[in-house]
Design a protein that fits this description.
By secondary structure, the protein is an alpha+beta fold. The protein has 4 helices and 4 strands; from the N terminus they run E-E-E-E-H-H-H-H. It has a 4-stranded antiparallel sheet with strand order 1-2-3-4.
């Protein structure tokens, strides 16, 4: 609701922001022994570890419970931002569709279709199809570890009803969709020093600050400067 209000003017001051904190309990973040609260954030950008504008941000919060038929969603919040709209939004249509239902492959399939419709960048946004596909993949990544095609949650062994006897969502116990592999490359002295790491010749002076760059050189007296002037017409002289 706050994000939807008009922009604050020069006479308005934001005094405080309150973000509710989930306090951990013996059972995770809920007092109910049959429920679990899970939270995950996502971000995709041209440089994930750098200061680059994101193609899409997302934050998901869900309270799930185990029943005789599988994992049910008691409540869920799906927030998306930075995908070509004025502010972050909640995918309320997807939330309403998922609440009260038991997770299954078909349910996730319908949810991702609704997500693709809900996350629609405005006209003129770069890579609109890619941003929408990111939203779909983030939601799939969030929900899929909770259900297998046979209805089992990814944790310890299934019992006769197909439901895990213990619920935990540690990363170390999450089964991924990709298989693992190992590649071993043995070094050979036959073509030495080919294949050996070589120190960059200028790394020492760059790291010590001794390297001199163009911006470090003072402009001489009566120095001339050039600048590009963009034409307002194509192929003009």
């Amino acid at each position: 609701e706050f994000l939807e209000i008009p922009a604050l003017d020069s006479k308005t001051v934001l005094l405080s922001v309150f973000i509710p904190l989930l306090k951990p309990t013996k059972n995770g973040y809920t007092e109910n022994s049959n429920t679990k609260v899970i939270f995950q954030t996502y971000r995709a950008s041209p440089r994930p570890l750098g200061n680059a504008l994101a193609y899409l941000n997302a934050a998901f919060l869900a309270e799930i419970s185990i029943g005789d038929k599988g994992v049910g969603i008691n409540s869920i919040r799906l927030a998306f931002g930075s995908f070509g709209v004025k502010h972050a939004i909640r995918a309320s249509t997807v939330e309403k569709y998922l609440v009260g239902k038991t997770l299954s492959v078909d349910l996730i399939y319908e949810a991702v279709k609704l997500t693709r419709v809900a996350i629609s960048p405005e006209n003129g946004t770069s890579h609109p199809a890619y941003r929408s596909s990111l939203a779909v993949s983030f939601l799939f990544d969030f929900l899929w570890p909770l259900v297998e095609p046979d209805g089992c949650v990814y944790t310890s062994t299934c019992n006769s009803s197909g439901i895990r006897s213990r619920m935990t969502f540690d990363d170390s116990e999450t089964t991924t969709l990709l298989s693992s592999a190992t590649q071993v490359i043995e070094s050979s002295r036959e073509h030495y020093p080919v294949g050996e790491p070589i120190v960059k010749s200028g790394s020492a002076i760059q790291a010590s600050g001794e390297a001199v760059f163009v911006d470090d050189i003072p402009s001489p007296l009566n120095c001339l400067h050039g600048a590009f002037i963009y034409s307002t017409k194509p192929l003009a002289r």
